[in-house]
Design goal:
Layout (H helix, E strand, L loop, with lengths): L9 E5 L9 E14 L4 E14 L5 E10 L10 E8 L4 E13 L7 E12 L8 E9 L6 E8 L2 E7 L9 E4 L2 E4 L6
């Protein structure tokens, strides 16, 4: 593991207003499975980040946990969130969010590659042990600039909602780059 990666392990915030509730909040983080690419000489981040919120008026007892799992073994996917779990202090599961990505190449630029978020599935457990609500979002992209062209969302007992998105070049909203005017979408400057 890359030994000099700077991380935050504790954050304490004091409000300086006594008598209005908790005067201090504390959040702690734990990191695991860091990856350093020795060939590229780049740290790709940690695969697991655990965040804990503490109840400072009750001996710093943990009342909420976020367990986040990230890609950290691929240049194009590094830092992208795979899964997030939200749990209470008793470790009961409240919500899970899962993301699925894919890899693309822009059609108008040679070797310009990017990752897209294709699907997000969110399951709400609310501490009951079963996912009573399931929400799914899907995204479609055009390959010229990698812009989202369609977003679809569905949920338990909800009809499918689809948003179609289109883009156009406006001469009013363009950048001046030397003596050539380029559309805002072609951000070469």
């Amino acid at each position: 593991m890359y030994s000099t990666a700077g991380v935050m392990d504790t954050l304490i915030v004091k409000d300086n207003f006594p008598g209005d509730g908790a005067d201090m909040s504390m959040t702690t983080w734990q990191y695991d499975k860091g990856y350093y690419d020795r060939i590229e000489r780049v740290f790709y981040g940690f695969a697991i980040v655990n965040e804990k919120h503490h109840y400072t008026e009750n001996s710093n007892a943990i009342y909420r946990k976020y367990n986040r799992y990230y890609y950290n073994n691929n240049f194009y996917y590094k830092g992208l969130l795979l899964t997030e779990e939200v749990r209470n202090g008793g470790d009961s599961l409240y919500m899970v969010s899962m993301n699925r990505y894919s890899h693309h190449t822009l059609t108008n630029r040679e070797n310009a590659q990017y990752a897209t978020l294709d699907t997000t599935v969110i399951c709400y457990y609310e501490g009951t042990g079963s996912a009573d609500i399931r929400q799914e979002k899907t995204f479609r992209y055009e390959t010229t600039y990698g812009n989202v062209t369609q977003q679809t969302e569905t949920s338990t007992d909800m009809p499918v909602v689809t948003a179609n998105i289109s883009y156009h070049v406006s001469r009013r909203h363009s950048k001046q780059c030397g003596n050539t005017r380029l559309p805002q979408a072609d951000n070469y400057c």
